[in-house]
């Protein structure tokens, strides 16, 4: 019997095994701790990333850039949006120097922002039960390249969602459609946001682990699950904070920061849970080819780890 080439080739019983192992590995890999580590690096990375983002969006005004941040964090709690918008405004007020120092500052900000990507690479290898075999000269350009790509995708997506609303308004007036064009775009922008989120997840899932993936696909089962979980978790947490939470009473002036940290942690758990599902789908293919369930590593590495670093 040939190995399944994709998720749709798996029988129902195999899917049940994959889901059970996904939950089991989620606990075994201590994903909640990995998500906490990613949250730490996200905090260290997010404001350098804002510097890079503001540099990319230098042609836009302050109001437009603030609107873009709102577009990126549309499902986040209000405290998170306010905190990030204030951070962007602070970066814009400081402004930038010209010439060589500006380039050096941007390079330092980019390297600092890539700390999150480096942490995600390590977490992805834990999820796939494989050690890092790629040398420094491969991993470093990868983390920088992924940081640039993720930042550009976020900026492009936010621009598409935020500024094209104005274009819809102009088109509606030009063609006599009135507010119909804007109303249509208000509905269509959500699938656009979902596609952008899926693209970001796809890039991370494909490039981060030291594993040869079956192929570069826009949407994987794990990526789709991660996006759905993130939407549910972000929306649910935003409602909880708005109507049931007592963070202001408990933490006072630190409430916005605490809400931001919890939201990041929940978002990272959703991202890593999706990665666990994709990893278990690869393990299932390995089992179908005659491999043992407990064999690790079960995926083909991009670069072979050192023999003394292999698990087991």
At a glance:
With 312 residues, the protein is mainly alpha-helical. The chain has 11 helices and no strands.
Describe the protein in words:
This protein has 312 residues and is an all-alpha fold. It has one domain. It has helices spanning 12-28, 31-56, 62-72, 78-94, 100-113, 115-127, 136-174, 180-207, 221-243, 247-251, 255-288. The radius of gyration is 21 Å and the shape is globular. The mean pLDDT is 77.
SSE order and pairing:
Elements: H1 12-28, H2 31-56, H3 62-72, H4 78-94, H5 100-113, H6 115-127, H7 136-174, H8 180-207, H9 221-243, H10 247-251, H11 255-288
Helix pairs in contact: 1-11, 2-4, 2-5, 2-6, 2-11, 3-4, 3-7, 4-11, 6-7, 7-8, 8-9, 9-11
Q: Work out the helicity level.
A: over 70%
Order of helices and strands: HHHHHHHHHHH
Q: Describe the sheet with the most strands.
A: none
* Total number of helices: 11
The proportion of strand residues reads under 5%
| Radius of gyration, in angstroms, nearest whole number | 21 Å
Number of domains: 1
Head-to-tail CA distance between termini: 29 Å
Give the low-confidence spans: none
- Let me know the number of strands: 0
Task: List the defining traits of the structure above.
312 residues; globular; 11 helices; transmembrane helix; mainly alpha; Virul_fac_BrkB; 0% strand
